[in-house]
């Protein structure tokens, strides 16, 4: 039997056992996300697509799945959604500029040896592709931080309606700080696991320090690590600020009717 | 006032180190040149077998050598790049590049690589600054544990490549143990909550790896394609397993510490909660986080395969073949990580309850 099928079945059973209906929903969301990634790839194949705009559309779809499908459509998820979009737009600009300056797009020298049989003149703008890849790599973590902050702030505000905008913002940032470390850890260890082969490759082929720090693969990986860290940190004040405003506005609106 | 000074010092240090790296040509043995003039000398539209259109440009540049014996001499550089830039790039004025002189020539050369070191330093400082400004003390702790982890990883790999008889899996297991201790003890301090998370992480990671290993044996790795695994100088299976181990660890730790903190906080706020109630709350929290953390892993692994997928599809390779060649390892990693995340939920709940009952008995 196919190993991936077996692993997927084990994951599905475990998610159902531990999470019940929510577990099944998590599994389905994983599957939906996979489909979104494939659809994105298909649109990238059309050389007329603007890949940066396509990336933003993908972000809208992915955050809709991970926010609205899993947690329902409400003020918490809507605020998290807006914060995610805003953060990703800033991040995408940063990543695009950095990728352009550092020329980390496309395949590296180390990879091209295996690519000999293929035509590399395929007309897809690889600079935009590399920006899209880095943004998609981080999207899971950014959505996670956003929803954790907005739902905890909602909880705080429910318990104490007298909280000022400033106090709400501070509490949101405090929650964000708590998850900053763990979420960057999750992401970075996943990266390390993937880079393991590359690190051993550098050692075995005795790359010098200078060669490593200027290599395209290394540059691309450092940009991924640094930009995803920046993204996770950046969403904290953005989500906290948006949430503090929307909570107050909603509260003021609902007051007169009481 | 002190905060202001700290920011000024941070900005100064980052500027000095970035500019220092920008002008560090003297440290390199290989010749580095600064491009001062560039022009496109030829351009050609190409069509490949798959019907893809692209434009190839020829670029000629004047550059000044910045280091070595040929310092201050002018060289002519040529470069070819495509519109799509799948493996090539265009160059601009003022860029610094590593060059190799053409045979028997002191005036013509080609570009070997771009100088990227200063950009990495600058971006690194931006990363540090963002984490410090947003995260303050917590950001600093995260940065310190991050750099300790990298040091451990590098030392481990150094030992592995030096001593041939060391197994990569054993090295990785030791690395994982150190990662867990550094990341959890350092940020959360020595207390029952942290011990719970450490024990749960180790049990969770161990069980996950055992499951992955058994499934690999039973299915004879049917469906896994190592052919496209890049950068291999060692047996691919071991590299894959070691990567699996380290890759799932972060997510497992995330679940363990989040759940343990919440459970201990709940019990502190309401000491009268029964074990059954705590168990129930733990499940609810676990359900909330398992989906998002699995998704973090999924995107971290699968997104990286996109350029390869594009290349395969554009070269007219079939859908199923392209996916299985380029995604099988990434999906296996994401699934194993997901299994780790879900398994760690009941494990953490049980370890937490065990610590709590022990504390109650001793009290």
Could you explain the architecture of this structure?
Chain B: The chain crosses the membrane at residues 7-23, 118-134, 141-160, 166-187, 194-219, 239-266, 289-313, 333-356. Chain B: InterPro entries: YibE_F. The complex is a heterodimer of chains A (258) and B (363). Chain A has 258 residues and is mostly helical. Chain A folds into two domains: 1-33; 46-113 and 120-254, Multidrug efflux transporter AcrB transmembrane fold (Up-down Bundle). Chain A has eight helices and no strands. Chain B is α+β, with helices and mostly antiparallel strands. Chain B folds into two domains: 31-114; 167-362, Multidrug efflux transporter AcrB transmembrane fold (Up-down Bundle), CATH 1.20.1640. In chain B, 63% of the residues lie in helices and 14% in strands. Chain B contains eight helices and five strands; from the N terminus they run H-E-E-E-E-E-H-H-H-H-H-H-H. The longest helix of chain B has 46 residues, at 117-162. At the A-B interface, helix 1, helix 2, helix 3, helix 4 and helix 5 of A face strand 2, helix 2, helix 3, helix 4 and helix 5 of B.
Assembly annotation = heterodimer
Annotation, overall tally of beta strands of chain B: 5
- Broad structural category of chain B: alpha+beta
Q: Mind describing the biggest β-sheet of chain A?
A: none
Measure the end-to-end span of chain A.
Answer: 62 Å
Q: How large is the count of helical segments of chain B?
A: 8
Radius of gyration of chain B using CA atoms only: 27 Å
CATH architectural label of the largest domain in chain A: Up-down Bundle
Task: Quote the beta fraction of chain B.
Answer: 5-15%
CATH class of the largest domain in chain B reads Mainly Alpha
- Unreliable stretches of chain A (pLDDT < 50, length at least 5) are none
What name does the CATH topology of the largest domain in chain B carry?
A: Multidrug efflux transporter AcrB transmembrane fold
């Amino acid at each position: 039997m196919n190993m991936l099928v077996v692993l997927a079945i084990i994951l599905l059973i475990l998610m159902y056992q531990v999470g019940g209906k929510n577990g099944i929903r998590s599994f389905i969301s994983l599957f939906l996300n996979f489909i979104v990634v494939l659809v994105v790839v298909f649109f990238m194949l059309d050389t007329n697509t603007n890949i940066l705009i396509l990336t933003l559309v993908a972000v809208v779809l992915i955050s809709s799945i991970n926010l609205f499908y899993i947690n329902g459509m409400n003020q918490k998820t809507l605020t998290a959604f807006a914060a995610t979009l805003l953060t990703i737009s800033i991040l995408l600009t940063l990543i695009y500029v950095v990728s352009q300056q550092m020329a980390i797009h496309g395949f590296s020298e180390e990879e091209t040896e295996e690519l000999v049989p293929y035509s590399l003149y395929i007309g897809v703008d690889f600079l935009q592709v590399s920006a899209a890849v880095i943004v998609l790599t981080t999207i899971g973590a950014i959505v996670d931080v956003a929803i954790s902050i907005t739902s905890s702030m909602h909880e705080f505000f429910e318990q104490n309606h007298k909280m000022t905008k400033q106090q709400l913002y501070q509490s949101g940032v405090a929650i964000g700080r708590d998850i900053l470390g763990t979420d960057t850890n999750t992401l970075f260890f996943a990266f390390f696991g993937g880079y393991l082969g590359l690190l051993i490759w550098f050692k075995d082929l005795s790359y010098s320090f200078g060669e490593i720090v200027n290599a395209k693969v290394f540059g691309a990986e450092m940009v991924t690590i640094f930009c995803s860290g920046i993204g996770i940190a950046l969403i904290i004040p953005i989500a906290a600020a948006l949430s503090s405003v929307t909570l107050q506005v909603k509260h003021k609106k609902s007051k007169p009717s009481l | 006032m002190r905060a202001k000074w700290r920011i000024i010092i941070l900005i100064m240090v980052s500027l000095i180190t970035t500019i220092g790296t920008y002008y560090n040509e003297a440290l390199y043995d290989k010749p580095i040149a600064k491009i001062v003039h560039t022009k496109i000398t030829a351009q050609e539209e190409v069509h490949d077998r798959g019907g893809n259109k692209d434009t190839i440009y020829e670029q000629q540049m004047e550059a000044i050598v910045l280091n070595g014996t040929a310092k201050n001499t002018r060289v002519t550089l040529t470069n070819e790049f495509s519109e799509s830039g799948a493996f090539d790039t265009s160059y601009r004025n003022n860029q610094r590049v590593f060059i190799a002189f053409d045979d028997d020539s002191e005036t013509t050369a080609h570009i070997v690589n771009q100088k990227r070191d200063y950009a990495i330093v600058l971006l690194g400082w931006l990363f540090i600054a963002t984490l410090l400004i947003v995260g303050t003390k917590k950001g600093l702790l995260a940065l310190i544990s991050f750099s300790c982890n990298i040091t451990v990883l590098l030392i481990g790999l150094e030992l592995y490549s030096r001593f041939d008889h060391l197994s990569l899996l054993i090295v990785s297991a030791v690395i994982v143990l150190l990662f867990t201790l550094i990341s959890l003890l350092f940020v959360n301090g020595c207390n029952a909550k942290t011990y719970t998370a450490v024990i749960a992480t180790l049990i969770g990671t161990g069980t996950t790896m055992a499951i992955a290993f058994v499934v690999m044996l039973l299915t004879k790795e049917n469906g896994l394609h190592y052919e496209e695994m890049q950068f291999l100088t060692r047996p691919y299976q071991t590299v894959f397993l070691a990567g699996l181990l380290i890759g799932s660890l972060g997510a497992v730790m995330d679940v363990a510490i989040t759940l343990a903190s919440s459970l201990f906080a709940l019990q502190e706020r309401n000491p009268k909660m029964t074990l059954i109630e705590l168990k129930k709350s733990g499940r609810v929290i676990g359900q909330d986080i398992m989906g998002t953390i699995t998704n973090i892993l999924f995107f971290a692994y699968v997104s990286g395969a996109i350029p390869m997928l594009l290349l395969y599809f554009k070269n007219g390779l079939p859908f199923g073949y392209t996916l299985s060649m380029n995604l099988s390892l990434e999906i296996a990693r994401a699934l194993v990580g997901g299994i780790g995340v879900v398994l760690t939920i009941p494990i953490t709940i049980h370890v937490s309850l065990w610590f709590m009952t022990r504390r109650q008995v001793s009290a």
